[in-house]
Amino acid sequence: MNATELEKAAGQEAPARTRKRQADTGVQPIVRYEHVSKSFGDLEVLHDINLDIAPGEKVAMIGPSGSGKTTLGRMLMTLEEPSGGMITVDGEPLWHMKSKGRLVKANEAHLHRMRGNIGMVFQHFNLFPHMSVLRNVTIGPRKVLGISAEEAHERAVTMLGKVGLGDKLDVYPSMLSGGQKQRVAIARALVMNPKIMVFDEVTSALDPELVGEVLEVIKEIAREGEMAMMLITHEMDFARDVADRVIFGAEGHIVEQGPPEQIFENPQSERLQSFLSRFRLS
Amino acid sequence: MMDVPWNDFYPLLWEGLKVTVEVAVLSALAALVLSLVIGLCRVSKFKTVRIISQICTEVFRGLPLLVLLFWVYFALPFLGVEFDKVTSAVVAIGLNYGAFGSEIVRSAILAVPNGQSEAARALNFSPLQRMIYIILPQAALRMLPPFGNLMIELIKGTSLIYFITLSDLTYQALILRNNFLSMTPYIFLLLLLIYFVLSSFVSVTVRLLERKLAAGRL
Ligand SMILES: Nc1ncnc2c1ncn2[C@@H]1O[C@H](COP(=O)(O)OP(=O)(O)OP(=O)(O)O)[C@@H](O)[C@H]1O
Ligand SMILES: [Mg+2]
């Protein structure tokens, strides 16, 4: 591998290219990471991350355990504050706000407003155990979006129908299988109508036979379109089927990115090649 | 078998029971409110609030109830604060048991998995909404059994209020004993039974509440 190839492999040019293409078409990215870093104590786990996600784009994040994928998603969901750099959502800084012409740390009100654009589905579902399935899905629209009980009910029922749980409305989460729980969690996040949604390894806590039903639901949502998705996953087939772009990260860097065909059929970097060799692709 | 004049016991014990129940119910309410307020302050995001509330917990938990009672009833009037007997009892017992209760509230809140709070944040709940709709309802279930214990302790604690000359159950039993010295075992047996019934009432109520709250969850 020569120097230019290496550079390409390191993904250095890719964000610039994406940005250029977006500038050409005049589309503003829904999410932009600029020089974002994150440290826990003395340990820097993400280094100078630059990444744009276009509106409606489906981005799969793959990479070895501990590479920082979850942290990247959690910073977008405002669950973890970046240590450096800037995240922009829909053209507005996420963790910063303007005050007297200067950018200062965002307050709760700003974060609240920005969070309305973002949703997340967690590895361990985190359903509210003291509420019925229906209530899990209506409470957000009721209390946060402030819509009427009837409309919230209607939306929730539609959404639960979409994830195939129209018959489980009054059941409590503890009565559901893992796959069903995760589908409720997806409906709960979807009903808030975010512009970008983070899926953090949503199938890795599931029994193997339940993985398929959840991935099917996500594929269906992806097909519908408008919402951008950050899909953190260890399911390579799924990433290839759903993603517009696949990003391979390791040790806190984006090592390589590109369309799924390129990433899976023609990986450039040795890192990615050896990572992929551990998965047998069908 | 001795001829026990049970009928002479009942009226006095009934009077005492009314005082005991009145003080117990009022101080239980005071203790519960205090527990919640101090407990919530203990998990505040403001450090000053956390520190002040922790000092409250330590002080009122550390003082013997009897000393606290004496302070409120006998010492505070010298500082210009005067309560009647029942209020004094309610303040002292409420503070003492409220301090213990705040620990229950605090640890129950902290025991709710972090993922719950994060999921609520991802749905864009405000911090207050997170507490009200997500954290507290789940914490409440964990609080119930220890609160049941605390309330039973509280009922037993009310037996100290005769030291500030409130004529509660224990006080009346002591009076009766003066009048019927030879009946002492029977009088105290009755006293024991009444306290036992009172605390059983609390146990059963808590268990029913628990079952109701846990419905569907497990
Ligand atoms: N709250 C935290 N405190 C300290 N270190 C953390 C914390 N969260 C994550 N880390 C560290 O940050 C690094 C990246 O973690 P992260 O969970 O983002 O990786 P990941 O790519 O999602 O891994 P996995 O595939 O195992 O989920 C790891 O070394 C992890 O130990
Ligand atoms: Mg992870």
Automatic annotation (TrEMBL), chain A:
Keyword Nucleotide-binding listed: yes
SMART domains with a match to the protein in the record: AAA
Coiled-coil region(s): none
Transcription regulation found in the keyword field: no
UniProt xrefs under Gene3D superfamilies: P-loop containing nucleotide triphosphate hydrolases
Main location, first listed in the record: membrane
Cellular localization per UniProt: Cell membrane
Family label: Belongs to the ABC transporter superfamily.
Entry protein name: Ectoine/hydroxyectoine ABC transporter ATP-binding protein EhuA
Organism whose genome encodes this protein: Paenibacillus sambharensis
